[in-house]
Amino acid sequence: MQVVRHPLLSPAPGTQREIVSLHYGKAGGPKAYIQASLHGDELPGMLVAHHLRLQLDALQAAGQISGEIVLVPMANPIGLSQFLLHAHLGRFELMSGENFNRHYPDQIAAVAAAVEPHLGPDAQANVALLRRALKAAVVASPVDTELQSQRRTLMSLSCDADIVLDLHCDAQAVMHLYTETPCWPECDALARFLGARLTLLAQDSGDNPFDEACSQVWWKWKAHFGERFPIPQACLSVTVELRGATDVTHELAAADAKNIIDFLRWRGLIAGDKPALPEPQGDARPLAGSMPIKSPVAGVLTFLQPVGADVKAGDVLAHVIDPITAQVTELTSPVDGLFFARDFLRFANAGMRVAKVAGHTALRTGKLLGA
Question: Could you say which of 2.40.50.100, 3.40.190.10, 3.30.750.24, 3.40.50.720 is the CATH number of the domain covering 288-358?
Answer without folding.
Answer: 2.40.50.100
